[in-house]
Amino acid sequence: MKCPFCSFNDTKVIDSRPDRDGSVIRRRRECESCSRRFTTHERVEEVLPLIQKKDGRREAYDRGKVISGMKKACEKRPVSIDLIEDMAARLEGRLLESGEKEVSSTVIGEWIMNELHGVDEVAYVRFASVYRSFRDINEFMSELQDLLKNGDKSTAKSRKKGSDA
Prior knowledge:
The structure is a single chain. The chain is α+β, with helices and mostly antiparallel strands. Helix content is 50%, strand content 19%. The strands form two sheets. Strands 1-2-3 form a three-stranded antiparallel sheet, with no helix packed on it. It has a three-stranded mixed sheet with strand order 5-4-6. A hairpin with a 5-residue loop joins strand 4 (50-52) and strand 5 (58-60).
């Protein structure tokens, strides 16, 4: 493994351990030249479907793009990078389980919005505003009103459960 600091080609593994679900191996490494340490994550390379973009182009699935989009939506929100990576892993699992050779970017966008909706409503609205390209404030307000209505229903349900106890 090449050192990210000095580009020396030899590093040694100091520690290895699996992540929570065992799908990724986390390795602590040390450069044999500059002695700096860094972490790598090793995962099985799975064949994910191609992504069909709105303009008809097809491109390979890019985990980095998904995580980047979610990070932007969650900026300055109480959402950890671990949670963002867990959401991305669930998305990849869904892609693999679908068995499809191609998946529309629209489907992926909806999946991401569903994940964000359950984690942080502000992040959800941020992502939706970019993803859905609202044409005007009325479309944006309509989305917010739907979110508030659904939020009121879940709050009412939780109040009812609390009173049943």
